[in-house]
Design brief:
Length: 761
Amino acid sequence: MDRNDINKAREYEEVLSRLEDTFGDWFNGKMQIPTMTNNLYPYTKMFSPIKVNKCEIKNRLVMGPMGNVNMGDETGRPSQKMIDYFEARAKGGVGLITTGLIPTSFGVDPTVLEKDNLSYFPRIDRSRTNLVGWRNLAYAVHSYGSKIFIQLTAGLGRVGNPECLLTKLKLPVSASWNPNYYIPAIPCKKLSGAGCKKIIKKTGQAAIDAKTAGLDGVYLHGHEGYLLEQMTNPAFNRRILGRYSSYQQFGLDMVSEIRKRCGDKFPIMYRIDLSLMLNATYGDKMKKIKSLKKFRDERLCLETLEYMANLVKAGVDMFDVDLGCYDNWWLPHPPSSMPSGCFLEIAEIAKKYFKDNNIVSNAGLPVPIVAVGKLGYPDLAEQALRDEKCDMIMLARPLLADPEWPNKAFAGNVKNIRPCIGCHEACIKEFIEGGHPQCAVCPTTTFETGLLDGLKPAENKKKVAVVGAGPAGVVCAKTLVRRGHDVTLYEKNNYVGGTLKEASVPKIKYELQNYVNYLALQVEDLKKKPNFKAVFGKAVTEEDLAKEKFDAIITATGSKQVGLPITGAVQKHVCTAVEALADVEKLKKAKNIVVIGGGDSGCEFAYFAKYELGKNVTIVEMAPKLMAKSCTANRGHILHYLDKAGVKCYNCASVTAINEDNVEILSNASKTVPNPYNTWEPVLPENIHNPLAKKIKSLPKAVNAEADLVVIAAGTAPNNELYKTLVEKQTAPLIYNIGDSFAPGKVFTAVKSAFNVAKNL
């Protein structure tokens, strides 16, 4: 590098460092908290066409790669479920659809196949057996004027499931000898040169198969630490000899192969992170943590931009850019606690670099830069386009939450866009645990079959009571009304949302607040319907319901907080997390807060108390890991910044007594107790055993933590007393119990149960 390059490289790395710091307390005036407004309507920039190579896309909206895992049949052929899923988004008005991961490394990367050679990925490497599914998908998407690119991945490599070691006696592969992400004690062997060439050839074949099947382009996944990035980033590729010791070569060869097979006019899109952000994230930990040590020499931001320029020369037509990898998972998968538009500055860097260096595609066109990262707010997306921070907007989870997002934005009907809550519970965690992608707030996501033309009207209209106006109650009532039933919605409070009202108090839960606002609006719209009535501000009883002689009663009465049998638990300065969030003024008077419970609610409350209120916070958790049941991205962001803020945590510990000014804790002083703030390794699902896991020894030690407020976040139990009474007295011919009043869980399970009951009543 010359001096100018050195200065530029330093400038870029400083931007990354600043962003890493900002993502902890972004809500303190550094980044905006958006709402669903339409101040910039009409969205002239968003709904203008754009040309990529010879492919014209009708608007600037791209569906991100969300979906299709476990959505193919046994051969890997796209199923009707998968086709209907993408067709619904095309019908919703998005300009360009990108599929989820489609590996091209079968027979080389053993992690893409499970036992008995089954795969949870759709495939395009089995010629005519599979091509019919892809052709049908292309026809469905094209019916609505949308285009579709297939996302091809070279493989999973070190981020693949290491069970291949047990089922096939084969080590996972990587660019070099790297630790497996899920079980770092398992090594990934160096991919051979012949294996590299085989994957490249297979990718070229997949691309020409996609073109033949009628798809409009390919989308290479060189991002996030998958195998293509492992080969093209010196953090993972530490080869000394051979063609692919040059970290750019594998990607360049792959693009060249696609160009050779598909010609000059077939669009190629490339997904890339401007930086892994490992050094910016973990700092000195990169020198100390065994599973991270090897990855210190990551690609610099300037080196990524230079690589992107070379990719354009090889034949790439467009890019989407962001930050991060599996080892800091909250960056490439920003959860609800991350700010909206978090990577717009990154997109702007790439766009400016291409402009300043006069880089155009081989078709002689500007290279579009697609911005990603929580852009599901029409005003925010339109402003980014008008400010020329990017050329296109990628919507992934927002289109799972509301397939009609583009059509609603085009019509200015922004208030009725169903907002994503950023929870990851259904879209990502669901398939990690063995399902397929769904959505917490949209119960029809990946269940579009039979519903593309709408809900069926009720054959026999019923008089129905729905008790509770949380997510389950509102969704149930709305669905019943749409089908023609006469519905009365009861709510003891004067507001909609149930305990989501308290849960949305922290600023990091702004997307949950937007969802509560959306639910309230839906109820207001329902009040205009002749077959709907709302009764708020009164706790309805069995006697009240019996008088009305309902045909069906559906209880959605939510959950109640669970107390703990701890000495001193009943005192004025002891409360539940819900009670504390309902009385923030009480919180402000406290100085030292002890949170009992290190699950989602406990850690999110600790984050709120530390970052928004500036309190001294201590967390006590009995389990070895905090937020153990949360999605990796959610827990990663919260825990990383709790650690940075110096929040004290006692894991593998219990509270023995609560006193007036302190809490007595029985901690475990053993060195075998895991670091509670470990965010560089995932929490394995319960059904996956790690035989190499170290046993935790016990070394009890009594400690005291100062506390003038103790917050119990120990979970919830069903609030199902009304349901039990209704069943006992047979108050109606049909009685159902849904949501948290059946089993406390996530918004996902509440909404799903509500819709299913209402759909079939």
